[in-house]
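RECORD TYPE: inverse folding
INPUT: structure tokens
STRUCTURE:
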């Protein structure tokens, strides 16, 4: 199993509440607790978190290639976080660009010779992107026949279509390129999971919900 696939699986485990607390090797400002999904024995991970920011930015060294993850500072498995409608988005575009700019500048200062290979973003970190994705999901569900399943290739394809045409994705891509990451593709890298109690209902019933019936947000990879 490749290290990048391992990282994505670990992040998916975080979504289900399986957090492994570690002491980060470097912080911009010291929060009370930082949780990540890699054990402390994995070398080369840097976690940046500024007090008051709703996200953590993590850089992982995978055989000389660095992968960046921007994720919710809190566990997304908490029942109180639902529903995942548009209001669950964390950052405005300006706030996200600032977080990326500061974190990437700090990383490049700490690791001046590092090669950044990719970035994985939890979908709801960007408020605007999350609204775009939810809109695409709900429009897709409204036109689907059949019954709700826990996951669906048809819905997944709607998400990828949104990503390929998203002005928000274009803006994030420009910011990453400004810091040297040559983005050639953007895609959803986890299957979206729907609430189990909605299984068997019509897809159009999911479309009427602000969060489209999602159990939790997925992940987007820029590479």
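DESIGNED SEQUENCE:
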């Amino acid at each position: 199993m490749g290290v990048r696939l391992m990282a994505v699986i670990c992040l998916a485990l975080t979504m289900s509440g399986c957090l492994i607390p570690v002491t980060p090797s470097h912080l911009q400002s010291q929060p009370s607790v930082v949780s990540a999904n890699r054990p402390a024995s994995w070398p080369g991970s840097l976690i940046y978190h500024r007090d008051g920011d709703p996200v953590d930015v993590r850089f992982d060294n995978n055989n000389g290639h660095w992968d960046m993850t921007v994720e919710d500072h809190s566990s997304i498995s908490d029942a109180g976080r639902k529903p995942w409608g548009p209001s669950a988005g964390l950052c405005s575009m300006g706030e996200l660009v600032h977080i990326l700019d500061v974190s990437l500048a700090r990383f490049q200062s700490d690791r001046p010779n590092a090669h950044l290979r990719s970035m994985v973003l939890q979908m709801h970190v960007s408020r605007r992107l999350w609204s775009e994705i939810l809109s695409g999901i709900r429009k897709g569900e409204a036109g689907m026949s059949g019954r709700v399943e826990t996951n669906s290739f048809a819905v997944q394809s709607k998400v990828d279509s949104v990503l390929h045409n998203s002005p928000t994705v274009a803006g994030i891509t420009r910011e990453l390129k400004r810091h040297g990451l040559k983005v050639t593709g953007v895609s959803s890298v986890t299957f979206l999971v729907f609430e189990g109690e909605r299984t068997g209902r019509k897809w159009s019933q999911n479309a009427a919900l602000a969060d489209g019936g999602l159990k939790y947000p997925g992940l987007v990879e820029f590479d």
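NOTES: Helices lie at 3-15, 93-110, 127-142, 153-165, 167-178, 203-207.
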